[in-house]
Amino acid sequence: MTRQPIEEFCPVHGSIEILQEKWSLHIIRELLEGREPGFNELRRAVGANPATLTERLEHLEQMGIVHRTVHSLMPPRTSYALTPAGV
Fold it and tell me: Containing H/E element for 77?
């Protein structure tokens, strides 16, 4: 009898994979408040270094959990919010 991979039958597995990455849970927790913080505000609240925060935000955005809004290019200003999938 062959066993199915856990991700095929466990609906929680995908969520755990996302949340176990360092800083991801902290980012989601901050965004659950409903505000749309900018990058620096989010960095201060979470405590991650800028490179790590950028990497995690990009990954969460690729997965459809976080949405990034660009307000201006000069000076660069963005804000972040959870998508319906992230809530």
Answer: strand 77-82
